[in-house]
Amino acid sequence: MTDLLDQLFETHSLTKDEIIDALRMMEDPQHKSRLFDYANRTRLAHYGPRVFMRGLVEFSNYCRRDCMYCGIRAGNRNADRYRLAPEDILACCREGYELGYRTFVLQSGEDMWYTVDRLTDILGMIKGEFPDAAVTLSIGERSRSEYEALYKAGAERFLLRHETASRELYESLHPNMSFDNRMECLRMLKEIGYQVGAGFMVGLPGQTLEHLAEDLDFLHRFQPDMIGIGPFIPHSDTPLKGSKGGTVDNTLVMVAFARLLVPKANLPATTAMGSLDPQGREKAIKAGANVVMPNLSPTSVREKYALYENKICTGDEAAHCRGCIEMRIKVSGFEVDMGRGDSLNWQEPVEA
Fold it and tell me: Taxonomically, which superkingdom (predicted)?
């Protein structure tokens, strides 16, 4: 008899109520094992054994926002702030290009010092020197005109986690931010033509099974090109410092569901997974993830970009980061792909 997991594997579609019921099935280890198998088979069907490598440059830890869970929130007076100069960002990309990377992910807090003019200049420098490389931005909420200018300047991809698809939970965690604006930004980015990344954390205080089902249902309806899912890890300089964190096991379930509901998306095995479990990223790859993002940031600033604590690889040089994760990927039975790795969802749009 066909059950919900078989249906998910065969049709890549469930209603929100069906997602809730399927999540409840995960209490049975046999069902969980079957979920991971279906997710792995789905990613192999679309992307084969390839794991795309992205070079990550964390260029500023200044942020105007005060998200309750984040270590670089504006209200954290203990954060050691930094900004990389444009030439330093270019130097990181240059080193990454020499190491074989053909995608650079430029990530920061919502730092408005980097005006649209500064950012377009940076993009021009990168695309001018490396025209065959893709550039992803992860800089938070901006206006439509800014998003359009950055797209024209050469940014092809944009990561903007929706954080949670529950308005109530979103507003409880994001003081003075608008749930509607967050969702509108994601829609705008898609309309402009970006490959768009959404995503959420697992294990947030107050998060329920129903909230997680809302997240998965949103991903299924929105059909993003990239999906970032990681465990909540408390930071001691935030209001949620005493909260219980998320788990690798629960996050793996969400990664697998995301793969099955959005089969053509690129799914990173996040650093947070590796920070909680030495085998966390490998487990995520086996549960459907197909991207890793080794760090190209200067080692002098890596510890300062502390969204959460006990982050791995902060002292590793870029070449070591690449070599380490490449070895881990191969030992897990997968293949490293240093190409651009464009999303199949973007190349072959589908209607949800």
Answer: Bacteria
**Tokens read off for 259:** 């793969």
Those residues with Cβ within 8 angstroms of residue 298's Cβ, 6 or more apart along the chain or in another chain: 84, 88, 92
Selection from 111, 78, 120 nearest residue 303 by Cα? 78
Give the domain extent around 29: 12-347
Provide the number of structural domains found in the chain: 1
Check: pTM over 0.90? Answer yes or no. Answer: yes
Q: Assign residue 223 the CATH number of its domain.
A: 3.20.20.70
Question: DSSP assignment of 207-264, as one string?
Answer: --HHHHHHHHHHHHHH--SEEEEEE----TTSTTTTS----HHHHHHHHHHHHHHSTT
Q: Tell me how far the alpha carbon of residue 72 is from its chain's centroid.
A: 17
- Is residue 314 within 8 A of residue 347, CB to CB? The reply is no
Encode pLDDT of 231-253 as tens digits: 999 999 999 999 999 999 999 99
